[in-house]
Specification:
Helices cover 4% and strands 37% of the residues. It is built from 1 helix and 11 strands, in the order αβββββββββββ.
Length: 155
């Protein structure tokens, strides 16, 4: 016997289902066996939308969240430009991943990953990535701090 069961509808809503296997035929009395399956909600994760920031400024990772059977998530940097210096305000597990900030001064694309904790059930952790683009900080140079000119001359 190779039975396959796919949870759906009220079984998912209820979070549990009892399956019953009953033998038939052959002139023998029927034998019954049951199994109760607890259905844990899958962990969910959303890293938020891509953002652009000016070098040296902070990006708050708003729009990020965890859910389902996940109770916390942790941020990490999985890719950055050569010489990149991205940093996160925290890489610890947190129930509020949207409160974490990211900063960098080296221009380029930084890929950040939000990974859920490993739920205490049959589910495994999941992750989602977001790209933060750091633009080079503008530089303004008007020359020396002071200058002296002669009245009537144009410089």
């Amino acid at each position: 016997l190779n039975a396959v069961y796919t949870p759906a509808g009220t079984d998912l809503t209820n979070g549990t289902v009892t399956l019953t296997l009953t033998t038939t035929g052959g002139g023998c009395p029927a034998i019954i066996d049951q199994i109760t399956i607890n259905i844990a909600p899958a962990p969910t994760v959303e890293a938020g939308n891509p953002q652009n920031i000016c070098g040296g400024n902070n990006a708050t990772l708003v729009g990020s969240s965890i859910g389902g059977s996940a109770s916390t998530g942790a941020w990490g940097i999985v890719a950055q430009p050569v010489g990149g210096n991205g940093s996160l305000s925290s890489t610890a597990q947190t129930a509020n991943p949207s409160a974490i900030t990211f900063t960098a001064t080296v221009a380029g694309n930084y890929t950040l990953r939000l990974t859920t904790n490993d739920p205490a059930n049959a589910c495994t952790s999941v992750f989602d990535d977001v790209v933060i683009t750091v633009d080079a900080a503008p530089i303004a140079d008007a020359g020396p701090a002071t200058a002296t000119i002669c009245a009537g001359t144009i410089r």
